């Protein structure tokens, strides 16, 4: 496969993985928690490096997974001890992120981790960092990592689809009929964390948020069915990734940044033109009501 | 160490940085309080991220690094982001958190696109725009600090002059509108003030951590007071304090970036407030909970004794009860029961004979009070809506002697209709007599009920 194809494959995998997980975050009104986790993952990666002295994907996944869960847990603790939830998220992620940056600069000489790289990602290097097993070149390791995370996410969603669905739309009913709501919450949070780390290399910590939230929010304006929403969201993730890649080629700009911008454009268009929940259709509906009345 | 500290402080550059971060801490603490109370803390985060494309555009248009134009660009794109967030919330079914995250990440992504564009242009490397992402407080120079402190002072003066209006707007927007305040204008003004605070902080602490400067001092201050004016002062002080701590610590050790250290210092102050603040802190909350638990356990034992005694005297049985009887009547942990029995025995409210326990004279009086109070409360909860005008702050604060006398009479009548009135009169017991029924008539009713039950 050519260089460009690998990049597009990586981007699309990011789009699909993030798009699917993102839908649940939006429905559960936890979009900002994803933002928080995507920031604190930095601390997880630095700590994983300091402990294991390697930049292997699996250590990063474990470190980031633990810190991601810790973030969700700390927010929950502060929330239940009376801190209002938006402030709880703000305090937790900024302090953990600050701690991560301090560690990073204190061990700057030892960690081969560029902060800018961590934040913005460097998808252009992905195709060179290949996975070789027994002398066989199996393609970029990021693709393997993203693919396996996507597979894990799909399996988890398939297994717990009903539970996640009910507890997203009606948490009170879910706990009343005996669904372990807290378990589902932390399950989703760990899915968000591993998704974030897997996408981290390619799009960076902050643009992961764009890939998590924007496709889901766009799909949310287009449909009322969860399954359809998941499919649309994944599709928009892929479109944003491929569109972003070509836009970046044309103007010679950051690929991850242009992916986020394209996703933003798609959202803006949907926001105005969506047949059911769009601005235009609302205005038209309002007009027709006014016309009927007069 | 102190010499080292003194020599660091004598350094002119450190003085500038210190001065800048103190004023920045005060301004963001004060304005963060308003954002926090309006539950818009994370909008500050969005504004900070959204400032990046504004800064880059200002650089592309103006051509060189100029803090004045950067501030204008950052403020404009921050305000635009806020406006977009509000439009998305108002005109679609997307919720606030999603709207914030969406606008934040897209603006930031666009900012990074512009940043890569700048890096390719000829004068790209001299821009130092990367500093805005993480902040470089140490690289602040005199002119930067003059701009920062000028803006911070203007922000503080505006907040001081319009304090009353901002306060009213923060707590009761509808009322503010009702008495004719221009709420649309005040909203825009408050957003502009917050954006300005964010923008002057960008150089020092950076895009990502600026949110902490708005949120952390304010939420820490919330623990110390319930009044807005005091909260604003406390938040400003905490902001200044973390600015001082962060600057000094990072100037003393090499390789410590100032911005993150300021944020960690603020977080430490927050954690201290969370745990130790009077009234709202976890320690004082825990103590209060412990005291209530202790009182409830003691009252439970007394009331159970009273209940059992009441029943026993109906059927003329022994007035002494074993621990098992107490536990069957009201479930209680064994250890808790033993502890309270011992305590009450020492206080002279209970006496023990042969493994069985009975109320003493004073014990009967106290048990009567407790039972009367609790049963009255049960009646109150049955008719909560009728007595809503009592406006009880919390249910655990129920004391019957604080209830107005007509209401008390009404409650006691209801208590009689529900056969809930305590039947054993402690006054008789005090005279050294045995228990007597306070009300012969209701005893009859009780007896009948029991017969029905058993048949």
TrEMBL record, chain A:
Key words, A-Z: Cell membrane, Membrane, Transmembrane, Transmembrane helix, Transport
Gene3D superfamilies listed in its UniProt record: ABC transporter involved in vitamin B12 uptake, BtuC
Similarity section: Belongs to the ABC-3 integral membrane protein family.
Compartments where located: Cell membrane
Protein name, entry field: Metal ABC transporter permease
Membrane topology of this protein: Multi-pass membrane protein
An annotated GO BP: response to zinc ion
From TrEMBL, chain B:
One GO term of the biological process aspect: cellular response to iron ion
Transmembrane segments: 16-37, 42-61, 67-89, 101-120, 140-163, 175-198, 204-224, 231-249, 261-283
Record's bilayer topology term: Multi-pass membrane protein
Keywords, comma-separated and alphabetical: Cell membrane, Membrane, Transmembrane, Transmembrane helix, Transport
GO CC, alphabetical: ATP-binding cassette (ABC) transporter complex
Family matches, as Gene3D superfamilies: ABC transporter involved in vitamin B12 uptake, BtuC, Winged helix-like DNA-binding domain superfamily/Winged helix DNA-binding domain
CDD domains, sorted: TM_ABC_iron-siderophores_like
Keyword Ribonucleoprotein among record annotations: no
Principal location listed in the UniProt entry: membrane
Protein's cellular compartments: Cell membrane
Family: Belongs to the ABC-3 integral membrane protein family.
Function: This protein is probably a component of a manganese permease, a binding protein-dependent, ATP-driven transport system.
Protein name per the record: Manganese transport system membrane protein MntC
Provenance organism: Guptibacillus hwajinpoensis
């Amino acid at each position: 496969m050519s260089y460009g194809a690998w990049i597009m494959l990586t981007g699309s995998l990011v789009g699909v993985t993030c798009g699917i997980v993102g839908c649940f975050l939006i429905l559960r009104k936890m979009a900002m928690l994803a933002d928080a986790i995507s920031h604190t993952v930095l601390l997880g990666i630095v700590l994983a490096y300091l402990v294991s002295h390697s930049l292997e994907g699996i250590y990063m996944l474990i470190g980031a997974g633990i810190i991601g869960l810790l973030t969700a847990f700390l927010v929950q603790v502060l929330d239940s001890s009376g801190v209002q939830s938006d402030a709880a998220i703000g305090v937790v992620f900024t302090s953990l992120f600050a701690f991560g940056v301090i560690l990073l600069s204190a061990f700057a000489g030892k960690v081969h981790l560029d902060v800018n790289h961590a934040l913005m990602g460097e998808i252009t290097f992905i195709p060179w960092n290949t996975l070789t097993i027994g002398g066989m070149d199996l393609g970029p390791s990021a693709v393997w990592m993203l693919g396996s995370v996507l597979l894990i996410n799909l399996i988890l969603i398939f297994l717990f689809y009903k539970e996640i669905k009910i507890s997203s739309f009606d948490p009170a009913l879910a706990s009343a009929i005996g669904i372990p709501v807290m378990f589902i919450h932390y399950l989703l949070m760990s899915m968000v964390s591993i998704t974030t780390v897997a996408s981290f290399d390619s799009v960076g910590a902050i643009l992961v948020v764009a890939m998590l939230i924007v496709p889901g929010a766009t799909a949310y304006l287009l449909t009322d069915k969860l399954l359809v929403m998941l499919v649309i969201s994944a599709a928009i993730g892929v479109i944003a990734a491929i569109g972003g890649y070509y836009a970046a080629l044309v103007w010679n700009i950051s690929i991850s940044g242009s992916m986020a911008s394209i996703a933003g454009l798609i959202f803006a268009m949907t926001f105005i033109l969506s047949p059911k929940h769009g601005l235009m259709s609302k205005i038209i509906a309002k007009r027709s009501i006014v016309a009927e009345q007069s | 160490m102190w010499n080292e500290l003194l020599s660091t402080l004598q350094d002119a550059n450190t003085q500038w940085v210190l001065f800048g971060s103190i004023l920045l801490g005060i301004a963001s603490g004060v304005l963060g309080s308003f954002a926090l109370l309006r539950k818009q803390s994370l909008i500050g985060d969005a504004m900070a991220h959204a400032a990046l494309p504004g800064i880059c555009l200002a650089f592309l248009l103006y051509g060189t690094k100029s803090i004045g134009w950067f501030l204008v660009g950052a403020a404009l794109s921050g305000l635009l982001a806020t406006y977009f967030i509000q439009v998305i919330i108002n005109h679609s079914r997307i919720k606030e958190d999603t709207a914030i995250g969406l606008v934040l990440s897209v603006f930031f992504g666009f900012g990074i696109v512009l940043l890569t564009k700048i890096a390719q242009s000829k004068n790209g490397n001299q821009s130092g725009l990367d500093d805005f992402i993480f902040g470089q407080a140490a690289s602040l120079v005199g002119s930067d600090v003059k701009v920062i402190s000028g803006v911070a002072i203007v922000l503080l003066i505006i907040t001081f002059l319009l304090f009353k209006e901002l306060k009213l707007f923060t707590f009761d927007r509808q009322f503010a509108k009702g008495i004719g305040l221009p709420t649309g204008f005040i909203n825009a003004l408050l957003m502009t003030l917050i954006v300005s605070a964010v923008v002057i902080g960008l150089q020092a602490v950076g895009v990502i951590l600026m949110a902490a400067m708005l949120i952390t001092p304010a939420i820490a201050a919330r623990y110390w007071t319930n009044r807005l004016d005091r909260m604003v002062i406390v938040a400003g002080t905490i902001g200044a304090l973390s600015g001082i701590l962060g600057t000094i610590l990072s100037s003393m050790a090499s390789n410590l970036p100032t911005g993150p250290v300021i944020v960690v210092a603020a977080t430490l102050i927050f954690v201290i407030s969370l745990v130790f603040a009077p009234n709202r802190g976890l320690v004082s909350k825990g103590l209060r909970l412990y005291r209530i638990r202790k009182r409830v356990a003691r009252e439970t034992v007394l009331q159970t004794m009273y209940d059992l005694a009441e029943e026993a005297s109906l059927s003329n049985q022994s007035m002494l009860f074993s621990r098992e009887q107490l536990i069957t009547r009201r479930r209680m942990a064994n250890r808790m029961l033993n502890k309270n029995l011992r305590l009450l025995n020492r206080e002279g409210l209970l006496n023990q004979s042969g493994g069985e326990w009975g109320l003493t004279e004073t014990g009967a009086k106290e048990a009567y009070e407790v039972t009367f109070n609790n049963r009255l409360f049960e009646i109150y909860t049955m008719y909560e809506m009728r007595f809503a005008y009592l406006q009880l702050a919390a249910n655990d604060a129920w004391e019957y002697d604080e209830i107005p006398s007509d209401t008390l009479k009404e409650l006691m009548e209801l208590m009689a209709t529900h056969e809930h009135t305590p039947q054993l009169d402690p006054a008789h017991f005090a005279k050294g007599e045995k228990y007597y029924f306070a009300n012969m008539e209701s005893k009859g009713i009780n007896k009948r009920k029991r017969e029905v039950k058993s048949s």
